Amino acid sequence: MSKIVVKFGGSNLKEKHDIFRVAEIIKAYNQPLVVVVSAFYGVTNILTETLKKVLSDEEEITHLLNYLSVIKNEVVTQCIENEAEREVVWNKIAKRLKELERYLQGVNYIGEVPDFIEDIVLSYGERLSSLLLSEVLKNRGFNCEEVLAEELGLQTDGEFGNATIDLEASATAVSERLAGNKIFIVPGFYGISPNGKVTLLGRGGSDYSAASIACCINAPSLDVWKDVNGFMSADPKIVENPFRISRLTYSEAAELAYFGAKILHPRTVEPLMDKSIPIRIFNINNTLLNFEPLTIVNCQQEIRDGVIKSVTYNDDFAVLKLKGPGIGIKSGIVAKVSSALDNEGINIKSIITSQIAINLMLSSKDLAKAYKLTENLSLTAVRQLEAINSVSVIAVVGEGLLEKHGIAARIFGAVARRKINVEITSLGASQVVAYFVVQKEDRTAAVEEIHKEFFSISEIF
Questions:
Q1: Residue 400: left if φ>0, alpha if ψ -120 to 50, beta else—which one?
Q2: Which among 8, 189, 190, 251 has the fewest CB atoms less than 10 Å away?
Q3: pTM for the full model?
Q4: pLDDT per residue over 400-424, tens digit each?
């Protein structure tokens, strides 16, 4: 029988005692597993900041290594009682930190951060987590082994920072390496390019790497452990008492993740859909450990009476608006702009067009650079460029959204009741989502009112 792939995120590794709980869950499965881990909570952010600071200050290397040493040594001291065994583990951690130190010294020496160095430095959060967890489990009598991505054969397309896993190229090596009657601990977040370079899978990419491994070994499920009760009908920080969603399709989960629900990485479902491998989401704070998933994501479509399953939002959007009286029929504009932005690593999240305007939806951090790049193209059909920031995208998700009459009217009627202006809207780009842009200051009210419209009484999903 193929192994279940179990993924623990950084939210499961906040405190030094959290690793005990992770070990308890692994033990409760009572079977060989593939365990994919993220970095300890906040470590990736600290690595990112250190990469910036170390360009001009070598002392930042010492600060980082001291910080990481304290965290890891606290865990080792708490989890491993035998002094000799602790010493062995400390030495392994010290060796890995020494590797990290050499990369950071190189950055300080040359005064820049090459893409391949950035990727390998940021991978050390996960590398330290996998080493630490595997050593703690071994000390507790588990038959387990750490396997790094480079040892695993998890191959990517080679794009730094946001790579795609080549499932066909990876499948044989991964399945062979993870065979055997033991627990394998794998660091998430990165893979290896065809020429052996470390390539990150995008922020939050440990979910994606776990899903890819599950695909390669034909796992019966991908089990994702979080510190929340699965997918909800809205963000509990905004809506009081939202409902838990017990079942979602792959498409619904992907759209929710893309538009802001921070339960899964948006690409998690990609490797799983063709093989119909379900994603089961659990809450690590559920002490009963009855292994009843809070949300199951699979191919089984389930349309509720009200159609809508969740309303979510994403504040990391901005709009670059290209205006001109004939811009909608002038060929080549989108191609020229998208090519220019792509060459600079700027992703276009969505495009909404009309006869007199092309709206490019981007990440907020890319807006100023995209504006300048587009301006420099000197497109004759573009009479005016407008950069729109401080906006939020509201997304309403549910299978059957396009087939059910009156859904759009209810959505925009709810927003109108709060006198909120909708700046841009899209319906039909996907079978399961309608989304629109509002000013960021109106985001909370919009989510509240739409949720009230579709979830006024308790319903079973």
A1: left
A2: 251
A3: 0.91
A4: 888 888 888 999 999 999 999 998 8
